[in-house]
Design brief:
The chain has one domain: Rossmann fold (3-Layer(aba) Sandwich), CATH 3.40.50.10860. It contains four helices and three strands. Strand 1, helix 2 and strand 2 form a beta-alpha-beta unit. It is about 50% helix and about 15% strand.
Length: about 110
């Protein structure tokens, strides 16, 4: 079987166009999507992802906000913070940046 080249940029462009159209439809209904990224501490690798998330959200019309918590944030405070975001009607999506500091159970926080 011969190798097949996948046109990644073309596919990504079509996906972004589709998402932008869907976001526009939501906005017409008065729904303004907002993604909040939660980052605990500072991780150079996460910084790259965070910048790309913001850039891609802006391209498709999704509001983006980064919440950076101190590296000494404990599991209980992190869960409480995420719960407060869950109760915020302006937030339509939450993404938890990994890795988390040692001592925080990722699965527990995500559930």
């Amino acid at each position: 079987m011969a190798a097949q080249i996948i046109p990644g940029k073309e596919i990504a462009s079509k996906i972004k166009e589709y998402v932008k159209n869907e976001v526009d439809k939501l906005k017409e209904k008065g729904i303004f999507p907002k993604l909040v990224a939660v980052q605990v501490g500072e991780n150079p690798a996460s910084e790259v992802y965070v910048k790309q998330q913001k850039k891609n959200c802006e391209k498709v019309g999704i509001s983006y906000e980064l919440k950076q918590l101190p590296k000494d944030t404990d599991e209980e405070k992190l869960i409480s913070f995420i719960n407060s975001l869950n109760n915020d009607d302006s937030v339509t999506g939450i993404i938890l940046q990994l890795p988390l500091p040692e001592g925080i159970d990722v699965r527990k926080v995500q559930s």
